[in-house]
Design brief:
Number of helices: 10
Helix content: 40-55%
Order of helices and strands: HHEHHEEHHEHHEEHH
Strand content: 5-15%
Distance between the termini: 39 Å
Radius of gyration: 26 Å
Length: 201
């Protein structure tokens, strides 16, 4: 049987299966989804989807459920019940443990000692692309953009943040231990290993 034939096959849903399918779609999409889009995806009628949504609403009405079905115009969304908002705020305030891989830590070290520095300059020192490491460091608020370098293309300059100082227990960059040439060579060796591992060498 060809892939095209499989994709064109129509599935007939029981009421319970349709509820499960709608629930899965709303959970996965996160945002509001048009009822017409759900009906089209499941090869069902608008009335069938409305019935499934109503059944899910009854299911979530129980006090042991923290979510609900919200209908906005002609769209459905799986959302948190208002009475759970305080719990969401509490979990958002729980400090997140950040674990840095060797490659991310090496990139951070170079930025800390060479700042302000561009991504290209860091990659020249490491000898490997550092796109992933930069994205992670920005996500963790350990580095930030400091401006543009006065050079062709006006590349972005990066430096460390106050969060970096707090995370590593130093009051200022002057408290960082001195960096030596052997450390740069170690960075290059680790970067080469990183490339070899990605290529399966």
């Amino acid at each position: 049987m060809s892939e095209e034939t499989v994709n064109n096959e129509k599935k007939t849903y029981s009421p319970d299966e349709l509820c499960a399918a709608v629930e899965a779609i709303l959970f996965t999409m996160g945002d509001a989804v048009a009822i017409s889009d759900i009906a089209k995806a499941l090869d069902s009628t608008l009335k069938d989807i409305q019935r499934a949504a109503a059944k899910l609403s009854d299911k979530y009405a129980s006090p042991d459920s923290g979510v609900m079905i919200r209908q906005m115009d002609d769209a459905l969304q799986l959302s948190t019940k208002p009475e759970q908002f305080q719990n969401l705020i509490r979990i958002a305030k729980v400090p997140k443990k950040v674990t840095l891989s060797d490659s991310v830590l090496e990139t951070l070290s170079i930025i800390a000692y060479k700042q302000p520095v561009t991504k290209a300059e860091v990659e020249q020192i490491r000898g490997v692309s550092s796109e992933y490491a930069f994205n992670k460091l920005l996500e963790y608020d350990l580095i930030r953009e400091l401006g543009r370098k006065d050079a062709p293309g006006r590349p972005i300059l990066f430096g460390t943040t106050q969060q970096f100082l707090r995370s590593f227990g130093v009051r200022g960059l002057e408290e960082l231990p001195e960096m030596n040439f052997s450390q740069v060579e170690e960075f290059k060796e680790e970067a080469e290993k990183e490339v070899d591992e990605r290529l399966g060498i």
